[in-house]
Amino acid sequence: MAKEVSGEHSLREYYNNLYEDNTHLQGVDISVDNVCNLQCLMCSSEYSHACGAREQQFLGVRYNPNNTSRNTRYTQLDWTHVKYIKLFGGEPTYSPGIKQFLTWADTHIDWKNIHVEIVTNGTRIPDAQLDGVLRSAKHTRVVISQDGIEPVNQLIRQGTTPTDWTYWESITDDRYINTAASIYNAPTLKLFEDTVRPGWRIHYEMVSSPAMLDLRNMPEDLKCLYVEHTIPEPVRIWMQQPGVDLFDQFLAVHRAYNTLYNLNLAQANPVLNQYIQQTNAAPADFDSIRKAYV
Predict the structure, then answer these.
(1) Which of 29, 37, 76, 150 is the most interior residue, by most CB within 10 Å?
(2) What is the pTM assigned to this prediction?
(3) pLDDT tens for residues 218-237?
(4) Nearest CA to 178 among 208, 154, 150, 148?
């Protein structure tokens, strides 16, 4: 409901509009493992196995207790009426589970009848098998996750490499950029909008977990500083909803991230960097942060 209040389309609204016949399984989201090549700051080991080590180091516990997860429940589904398949992760261009699914699908799915959506971080070109699926599907939508201009995206999506936009544009003209709006990038998003390649549309995903990165949970004076910059309307509305001041938790996590990644916050978000330098807030202890994860 919070997304709908802020003017975003929620998954509830999306699927209510997409599926008129609710008597058969028509759409399947394929997220068969958590294997990813990046360690995004807002991510957890549930979606990227690479984040597990930092959770163990700082929190003493992993969100996903296993290093990697894998399931093959798709083999038990009735695919007779399925028309929509969404591939995400982990990272679908890197995931061994997705490759296993595609091999299984060779004898179970006729891609010419399927609308395919792939959600990718854009750092890797699909192999021949996945490329063939994307090009042979009835319709393909590409969603690339990117969170700002290069200094910002590199800070948030640790390990990222430049996207080959030309390749993805050769797949389809149904193209989106999914941008996770958080305390790290909100004041920079209008500049990002202005630099997006023609033919790509931006969808803003509001970060709500971990809670200390949620724009709603910033101190009010920091919200006022952010509002002085041009912020996309859905992001501004989300930020101005009531929240709980969790800046002490953010400070602790940010400092911990900095020991791992050497974040260049001064370049990526000078507003936040200056606020941190001037604040009198003390970082929280990780015992209190652990309760928000577990």
Answers:
(1) 37
(2) 0.90
(3) 999 999 999 999 999 999 99
(4) 148
